[in-house]
Amino acid sequence: MNEYVEAGLITGICYESDVEDQLKIRFGKGPFKKEEEVVKQPLNSVDVRRYVRRNTEKMVGIGGGKKIAVIRAVGAITSGKNGSSPVTGNTLGSESLVELIRKVRDDKRYVACLLRCNSPGGSALASDIMWSELKKLAAVKPVLASQSDVAASGG
């Protein structure tokens, strides 16, 4: 793990609940006096499919109009747009995710991005396209990636 930290790829490894607790402590709203009270509050987030479908900007607020984008990358990775079917389940389209990444990168209200990945992998080309856009975003804003139940291959 030290080699990843030294390369600047990660700051550490932790569980999803630890990430959520740290976000709540750092950016929690309200007149909380103790960290224990803050971590009991829900963390607002949005599923990438719902985000794209509604084309809204539901983000975790940190005050002063600044926001942290929370992108949930869910499904098998494919080229094109997100999709869903009873047979294959959810698909994570590279075009859909790239669109979100660019939106976060270009909007000055977003000061960071949390990418939550739950994917069995998929298309190597689509994964590479998404990775390229994430690197561009990371060059201008902090990006934190979090793995869910499945984060295989390109996930």
From TrEMBL:
The organism's place on the tree of life at top rank: Eukaryota
BP term (GO), one: proteolysis
Single GO molecular function: serine-type peptidase activity
Keywords for the protein's UniProt record, in alphabetical order: Hydrolase, Protease, Serine protease
PANTHER family per record: PEPTIDASE S49 DOMAIN-CONTAINING PROTEIN, PROTEASE 4
Family statement drawn from the similarity comment of this UniProt entry: Belongs to the peptidase S49 family.
UniProt-recorded name of the protein: Peptidase S49 domain-containing protein
Species this chain originates from: Chondrus crispus (Carrageen Irish moss)
